[in-house]
Input
Amino acid sequence: MQLKEYLQIIGKRVWIIVAVTLMAMGAAALVSKLQNPEYRSTIYLNVVPARLDLSLQLTTKALMRNYAGNIRSRETAMEVINRLQLDITPEQMADKLSVSPIEEDFFIQIDADDKDPLIARDIAQTTAEVFVEDVKVYMLEQDKRDRVDVNIRDYALPGVLHKPKWKINVLAGGVLGLLAGTVLVFVLKWLEADIVRSPEDLEGALGVAVLGAIPVASESSRRRATQNK
Output
């Protein structure tokens, strides 16, 4: 089958593709509307080695991965909960946090998610403060030349909408609807392949010439036949 034939098949039932696409986009918009909004606040920590030599920098990068786990630890979560007087468990607090070490820039990114943008900000800010305090206490016991300083780069801001991202959802729904509608058109075409509508269809199916056919009666002929009865 050539491209022109594919386009003809699609052109005859393009309304099906449009309808399915619109329904998929509408469903995606509805699902996004029904979801509870979630806000995200982000804060960054600077991780600064005491020396600029390569060995300490490599050690610092390896240490940053350990720091990311400590930030989401139960001990840190408990301290943040107590300071903010939140009625959640340490496990729930950990679920609200995402920590990503950015080794090439010596940053640690902390993301806090919550239904309230202000609480998301407070969680991010307090988590950063608790961890920085713990690191400073630990570094007091280390040699000054081997210390790694951690400090807050900027204060956290009120969270911005993180979920649902309705524009992306609607776009994804439109793409899926377009694909589904196109597949449906070809499925319908395939189902109709065995239906004989004309002598040409019969000749193509049987491979023999049609010598005669019963003519289709017109509406007036059918009406006269009914009256004669």
Summary: The two ends are 50 Å apart (CA to CA). The chain has a mean pLDDT of 82. Strands lie at 38-49, 97-102, 107-114, 148-152, 160-163. The chain has nine helices and five strands.
